Amino acid sequence: MTRPPDRPVLAALAVAIRGPSVVLIKRRNPPDAGLWGFAGGKVDLGETVAAAAERELREETGVEAEALESLGALDIIGRSDEGTLTHHFVLVPVLCRYRNGEPRAADDALEAKWFEIASLDPAALPMSRDVVPVAREAARRLAHQG
Questions:
Q1: What are the structural domains of the chain?
Q2: How confident is the model at residue 31, as a pLDDT?
């Protein structure tokens, strides 16, 4: 039996925007295995959330981007059928401006590619929670930065 977590795990999500598109990966590992979402992972001790987002994006997709700003925080809390806590992640989506590279699946990603933000549809593409609103907010903020 797996021991319940004793504290939340901090993770960064790289919301990398290039024009009208965002790069997404199909996750290899739980808790969202098989779902499309942002590249991301745990923040290492002594690492900033921004640096973690840039690193995870590079490791999982080969895409280079500059972290600009945090887009808030998302709590991902899972429980077993009996109600026992199975996981608690605090995910910090980070708006990233594309620099170079084309997505290729690596590390924890089964697939990686660009998706037009306006066409994202959870009914047509199995996605992690909040991908669409976070991607749209990132695009809106980037457009206002010029």
A1: 9-145 (3.90.79.10)
A2: 80
Taking Cα atoms as reference points, which of 41, 16, 9, 17 lies closest to residue 27? 41
Q: How far apart are CA 144 and CA 2, in angstroms?
A: 46
Q: Let me know the angle formed at the C-alpha of 97 by 95 and 100, rounded to the nearest 5 degrees.
A: 140
| pTM for this model (two decimals) | 0.93
| Residues 114-128: tens digit of each pLDDT | 999 999 999 999 999
Residue 5: its pLDDT value, please? 86
Size (the chain), residues: 146
Structure tokens at 68: 């600009």
Q: Is the dihedral of CA 125, 127, 133, 138 positive or negative?
A: negative
HSE-CB for 47 with a 13 A CA cutoff: 16
Tell me: pLDDT of 61 over 90.
yes
